[in-house]
Amino acid sequence: MVFFIVLAVVAVLLLLYVLSLRGKGRKPGFYGLAAYDYAHRGLHDSEKGVPENSLAAFRLAVENGYGAELDVHLSKDGRLVVMHDESLLRTAGVDKNICDCTAEELDGLTLEGTGERIPYLEEVLPLFEGKTPLVVEIKAFRKNHAVLTERVCALLDQYPGLQFCMESFDPRVLLWLKKHRPEVIRGQLSQNFIRSRSGLSLPLAWLLTNLCTNFLTTPHFIAYCFQDRRQPALRLSKKLWGVQEFSWTLRSVAEVSEAKQRGALPIFEHCRPE
What we know:
By secondary structure, the protein is an alpha/beta fold. It has one domain: Phosphatidylinositol (PI) phosphodiesterase (TIM Barrel, Alpha-Beta Barrel). The chain is built from twelve helices and nine strands. Strands 1-2-4-5-6-7-8-9 form an eight-stranded parallel beta barrel, surrounded by six helices. Helix 7 crosses helix 8.
C-alpha cells in the first residue's frame, strides 16, 4: 500500500511539474521574427571601436541584415537607457548604477573609451523600424519591473512599423505583459542558475532553472543559455507546449548552425552567421 501511495504522489508531482512548464506556443508575429539572426547587443566589435549596445553596433546590425538583442534600464529621471549592466563600471568606467544617474550624468559618459555614448531606447528604435526586428530585454532592478516595462511598451507603441518581442529573466515582467499587453510576444530568459547562482537562493535558482513560473506567465518563447541547452525543462517545454526557443549567446558559426538545427532562433556575437 505504501508503495502505491508513494507512486501516486510522484505521479502527481510529475504532472504538476509538466503543467508548470505551460507556454503559449507561437503567435502569428513569430513567423516574421523567425526569418532573422540576432546580433547580441548589436553587431559590436571592441577591437574595431564598436562597443556593445552602442548606436554604431545597432547600425551595423541593420546594415548587415541582422536583427538585434538589446537591454533596457531605467535612469533616475525615468529615461530608458540601453545597456547590459546596471553598473556603469565595466562599459563606461564609472562606479555607479544607472538607476542612480540622471540623463545629464549619463550624457557625459562614453562607452569603452570610444566616442560612442550611452544610447537611449528612443534613439535605437528608429534604426530598426521597417527594417529588421528587435529582441528587447527588460532589465528590472530594485522592484522597478512594472514602471520600466510600462514605459518601454509606451515607447514601442510609437513605432508601428517595428517588429519586436520582449523578454526578461524576471517573471514579474512577463506577468505584467500578460495582464496589460497580452498582444506583445513575451519570452522567459533562463539558464542553469543552480550552477551559476547570480546571488539567488537555492530554491529560487531551482525554480527559475526549471521554468516553474511558466504556468503563471505563459511565455511565447524561452530564451535559454546555449551551454545549458540540454536542461530537461527546456526540452519538455518545447516538446509538450510548442514553445519557441531562442538560444544565447552563440559565439561561432558552428554554434549558430546547431541552434538552428534544433529549431532555435540564434542570438550571436563575435561571429557572422552564414
